Amino acid sequence: MRPIAALRVSLLVACAAACGGGGSPLDVTRDAAAPIQTDRLRYTFAAGSPARADIAIAFEFTNAGPDTLYFVGCYNGVLPVLQKKQGSAWVTARLIVPPPCFRLITIPPRTTRADTLPVCYPTSPTTSSCPPWQAEGVDGVYRLWAMGAYFHYDPVAGGSPVPDSLRISNEFVLELK
Questions:
Q1: Does 10 reside within a domain?
Q2: Is position 51 within any domain?
């Protein structure tokens, strides 16, 4: 191969590796070991309404722990918190606060419960019926974190909090288009 042609090929290979070979910074891979698995790795808010954009995140929660999981709250299922990755930390992006009441949901060991988290984003802060978004911007990497999760729950004494490793989802991407 002639030196000029070899140089062109080398430059093309280097550019492909640097410019497009690594994918988007918002690409994620599925962590199949995470106890909460979302139905997709990418969700897009389509700002179709002047006040809000909606998505639904379907997920399955598998109790990988040794004991029954107890979820306490008013919601009729697992109520996850939507967390956004900012730097190396996870911050709350959306927290749904149910009305005060007592309902106990259980997931026995090695069983799975399917649920859906509806999420809305206020595209207009003055006219939206969505709660305020708590993280900076939308586009980013997210996960679900199941709140109100306990082992050995007793209504009077409470319960033992479940470690994060047994109540987080795979990472996924949210973006606003």
A1: no
A2: yes
Q: Does residue 22 lie within any of the structural domains?
A: no
Within 10 A of 165 (CB to CB), how many other CB atoms are there?
11
Total domains in the chain come to 1
Q: Give 54-68 pLDDT, tens digit per residue.
A: 889 999 999 988 899
Annotate 135-152 with b (16+ C-beta within 10 A) or e (fewer): beebebbbbbbbbbbbbe
Rounded Cα distance between 170 and 39, Å, is: 10
Beta-ladder partners of 72: 104
Beta strand pairing status for 80-86 and 89-94? antiparallel
Structural domain boundaries, residue 57: 29-176
Q: What are phi and psi of 53, to 5 degrees?
A: -125, 140
Phi, psi of 16 (to 5 degrees): -60, -40
pTM (predicted TM-score): 0.79
